[in-house]
């Protein structure tokens, strides 16, 4: 097991995201880790940014096979998505299926002007042609490895690399 500095990566992501922020921007985190990251990034990018959260459980293409995740949260988008530059945040980009599901759900709320994908970790292994414009770090993990973002009671993030 190896711990990585998630808080430092968040600060670096904020610097890389700053050029994408416009007066039409909004930040949307994918439940759970992406929502935690969005909460951390929002004050670093401008506290006035509208923020939302998506739980893509019902939009995943493996919903019928994998069943319902036990920690489903309601999606919360309290702003008009149409015409916005959406900064979509996720913790780990792997197959691309969560991001595809998030984009499908976003379009149910309206038609964004653009979507910028930012992820804390790109671990490779894509099954869909999806890539992040902003990445905290890229690492090639094999099938026996996994990476997980967690948050303690004080809101501090921890990124752990471990063998399955």
Protein model, in words:
- The chain is an alpha/beta fold.
- The protein has a single domain (about 1-60, about 80-164), classed as Rossmann fold.
- The chain is built from 4 helices and 8 strands.
- The protein has a 5-stranded parallel β-sheet with strand order 3-2-4-5-6.
- Helix 1 (about 5-15) crosses helix 2 (about 35-45).
- The longest helix has 13 residues, at about 35-45.
- The N and C termini lie close together (about 10 Å).
- The mean pLDDT is about 90.
Structural class of the secondary elements? Answer: alpha/beta
Based on DSSP secondary structure assignment, what is the total number of beta strands? 8
CATH architecture assignment name: 3-Layer(aba) Sandwich
Into which percentage range does the β-strand content fall? 25-35%
Strand order of the largest sheet: 3-2-4-5-6
Helix content, binned percent: 25-40%
Low-confidence sequence ranges = none
Listing every helix as H and every strand as E from the N terminus to the C terminus, the arrangement reads EHEHEHEHEEEE
Please state the CA-atom Rg, rounded to the nearest Å.
15 Å
Q: What is the fold named in CATH at topology level? A: Rossmann fold
Mean pLDDT: 92
Q: How many helices?
A: 4
The tally of domains stands at 1
Shape: globular
Largest sheet: number of strands, sense, barrel closure: 5 strands, parallel
Assigned CATH class: Alpha Beta
Distance between the termini: 10 Å
């Amino acid at each position: 097991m190896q711990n990585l500095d998630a808080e430092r990566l968040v600060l670096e992501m904020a610097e890389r995201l700053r050029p994408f922020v416009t007066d039409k921007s909004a930040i949307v985190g994918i439940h759970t880790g992406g929502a935690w990251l969005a909460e951390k990034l929002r004050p670093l990018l401008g506290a006035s940014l509208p923020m939302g959260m998506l739980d893509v459980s019902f939009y995943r293409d493996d919903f019928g096979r994998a069943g319902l995740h036990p920690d489903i949260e309601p999606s919360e988008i309290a702003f008009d998505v149409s015409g916005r530059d959406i900064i979509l945040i996720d913790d780990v980009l792997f197959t691309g299926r969560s991001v595809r599901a998030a984009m499908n759900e976003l379009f149910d709320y309206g038609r964004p002007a653009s979507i910028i994908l930012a992820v804390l970790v790109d671990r490779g292994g894509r099954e869909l042609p999806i890539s992040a414009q902003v990445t905290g770090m890229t690492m090639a993990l094999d099938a026996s490895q996994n990476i997980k973002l967690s948050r303690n009671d004080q809101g501090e993030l921890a990124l752990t690399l471990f063998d399955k």
